[in-house]
## 1
Amino acid sequence: MARGNRLARLAALGLLGVVTLTGCEMPNNEFWRFGWPEGITDRSQDMRELWTGSVIAALIVGFAVWGLIGWSVVMHRKRGDELPKQTAYNLPLEIVYTILPFLIIAGLFFYTVVVQNRVMERSDEPDETIAVNAFKWNWQFVYPETAGDDGEPVDTVGSSSEIPILVLPTDRTIRFELASADVIHSFWVPEFLFKLDVIPGNENGRDNVFEVTVQEEGAYVGRCAELCGTYHAYMNFEVRAVSGDDYDAYLEARESGLDTFEALEEIGQPGVSSSTTPFESLQNKNVDQQNAGG
């Protein structure tokens, strides 16, 4: 029984560290990201650290289990025909491997909720607000605080032949208000390390809203991450992160009547998407075949 107690205490001390590891600050380099992108927003670091801590915890549990399996194979291998001593139960060990998984799950759950609450925090007065409208099978981006030459807010709408470009400023708090015209879609920019399902009929300012501050300029692909129908895979868009001055100039150009392409060219940016290209849909193929046959 003493041997079982020592083994139980050793297992408890070795694996209990898993619970606390997810709360430690993790180094930010390619190795410790375990395949995740680096992230370009102010909230990416929190999610990356949760991912790193979870992977390390899983590896510790895995190595501990593999070690115990190996130990059992070596120490309890057959040594003869004599039946070894049979143990009906080991109460301390059973208590450890009953309670310890609960503690691990509780620890991971706790840190997940903490990070989720931090990521979903909203400011009282964001610097910018963007309305994102998802529909089968593309995106519309509306800048509600603007007014074009027709008096309506400036917007960009994608089509089967054009990737919609969402222009965002860096170093400003941006609130995204998401809505769906039909089914559940999901707004996902991999470099944000974040995605949010867009649930139809849920435009209540609570569940379909999030905020980020983009910290790096560049062009980043965006996708729909929820299977939403036949052409789900074609719902790509691009985030074009520019400086605050270029963003203001872009909106000013749009308000003067320029379209997305012209306004981007006006601020020295490529007028078309560079991170992704339109897919040739079956509808376009059928039209082309019909035109060729005619």
Note: Confidence is low (pLDDT under 50) at residues 18-23, 285-294.
## 2
Amino acid sequence: MRMEMRVETGIYGLDELLGSGYRSNTANIVLGSTGTGKTIFALQFILKGLERGEKGIFVSFDMDVKDVVDTADAMGWDDIEDYVNSGMLAIDKFYAENITYINNDLLGFITAEAGETTRIAIDSFTPLISSLSYDMRNDVNWFFSKLREIGTAVITLEEPLNGNMSEPSVVIPLFLGDSVIHLKNNGYGEAFNRTLRIIKHRGSWHAEGVFPYRILEGVGIVVEGWEFVESMREEVNLDQLIREAGLRKEDIDRDLLKKLQRLAESRASGVREVILGILRKYA
């Protein structure tokens, strides 16, 4: 079976929770309130691509080139300015007033700056769609589809100050995004001051649960707890399990066999017992 290429996020400990990273050509949402590190997340994602020779595009609605460079410098990423000067990283500040920016200026800028392999970060997306209604969901869907064609995008979002997660400016991109990661600043103390949860990762396995993370000078966001998740994932030999169930491959419906193979490759915790149970009952 052909292995799907993955896009490394650049966030230490996160790829292990996403099944080796983002899927290629996807729109990925990062949701979090002020102070959770959304901008650091976006820059870290872009920087990983730059280090691999990929182009980067960073769009902001409140930060210009100097602001972005200063933020990177504060983290110890002083090479960001070199990437800007070389043309590998394009940064622009937009003033969003309505949805028409999706259809012209913003997409035009991204398309013009994109290379063969491009990482796109939009920080943040909320101002652009804050006035949208649910009826305008197709406009955002169209925009996301264009981003997927150009490259792998991280689109950061603000969490509503009033805690109302049903607002269209949040619900629409969360519904349409291929993955959603929720960053929270809990205020519980050092160990669990900031936590990360993967809400969804369309078409891919992802770890369940809440994981603490820290923002450290020099490296950026570091997610903890991935070692335990990795240790719980099982290497499963489907052929061996079929024999253990007293069956032969030719005895099993082809569609069921295909599903079980996909399940075995997921390496999810407890998958061995699940496959054996299905084989004994349904095969």
Note: Residues 38-51 form the longest helix (14 residues).
## 3
Amino acid sequence: MKLVLASNNAGKLAELQQLFAPLDVTLVRQSELGVGEAEEPFRTFVENALAKARHAAAVTGLPAIADDAGLCVEAFGGLPGVDTAYYATQFGYEKGDSNNVRALLEQMAGIEDRRAALVSTLVALRSAEDPEPLIAVGRAPGQITREPVGENGFGFDPVMFLPAFGKTFAQLPPEVKNANSHRGQAARAMLALMRERWFP
């Protein structure tokens, strides 16, 4: 089965393709099929992922999968949430991972409650009209460090400390990170849903 990935992120494609390999599913990035970016006007991950998947399915006529992910900081009432990718721009910095980390550490400078979670929501649709989307959520709770630690990963990995490992995501080998990350959890849950509903 060919499935359009409602993302142009090459890293995300490689990660998900590997996870979905057991299902004999071929993921194709939407840009390769001439699909532009979808609007993401919503305040929840699930609504934005659904909008992206529906858009890709409508344009291509193929089943589609999309994810929306972000960082939810307890002390900020769950924000930046869906605005995670643009977090730094709220504070006058250019968009980018290192600026996001910098802005976050500055905003949390005087805050004792360091609890946060990386959250990923995956949505899959058989068609743009599918009334029963498959929805899988992964959540990796941890604490925000006071400075970046580790060289691996991307995004907030260097400041996301996982008490269970005593390390940040950026200190973990990729296979350990993927086994425990928010996206890894969501992808495994989605795989189980697809096996149950689409490939019984």
Note: The first strand starts at residue 2 and ends at 5.
## 4
Amino acid sequence: MLEWRLYEAGHCMHPELATLQGGRLAPCAFPALVAALRHPVHGRILFDTGYAHAFFAATARFPERLYRWATPVRLQEGESLVAQLARDGIAAGDIAWVVVSHLHGDHVGGLADFPLARIACAREAVDWMRARGRIGALRKGVLPALFDSATQARMEAFEDRRTVALEGPFARFGVARDLFDDGSLLAIPLPGHAPGHYGLLFRDADGLVFLVADASWSSHAIRAGIPPPAAVTGWLGDTDAYRTTLAHLHALHREAPHVRLVPAHCREWRPAGEGLAHA
């Protein structure tokens, strides 16, 4: 059983219409939500890192600056994840693992702030990035400058972990990767948004929690089964795969409403004040 807490490490501004068919054209804030978990054996674990100072350094020059123009980013002083954790008495060196859902800049911007942490991510995602140049990766929202040799040396692949066949309402997702070989943290592929996109399933004192990253931009979209426009999902990834994944999440919500599904940019899950505690 794990304890966990959500933090908001910055946010970007974007029209709701880009994330939800029939949404508003006016820009709205999409929080970069990060989960900080405490495992009884493996210590403190992060699921993604949100925005951080390294993101702004990586997008300071053209053409990477286009990333910031397309989705304007707001990160106030003291709002980076490492700063918020420090205020809660958690040092950067206390983080044992960072589990990465995918390689988009708003999810990995703070990797450099946790230099002692091991990084779990999909080999598929890393291989995709390495096969493309600076421009090719940028076109899909990936910033290779965030992955220097030291960071890449800390990466360990989901694909090297034991495969677990999922059952019950989760069977539609196929198989998971057991990160610690004890069933406590399962990385589940959620294809469509980006290469090597994964969610994270675990249990806390109140039941099951499924962090679904960018498989949906909101809880409303999961409940209603409404995808983003095809132009957006096709630009970033694979529209057919994305819509299949969203349909699976919609069905999971209907069949197992007790499972808490947490998208990475959902305003319903936005922490109030000093984070949203779940223990």
Note: The first helix runs from residue 53 to 58.
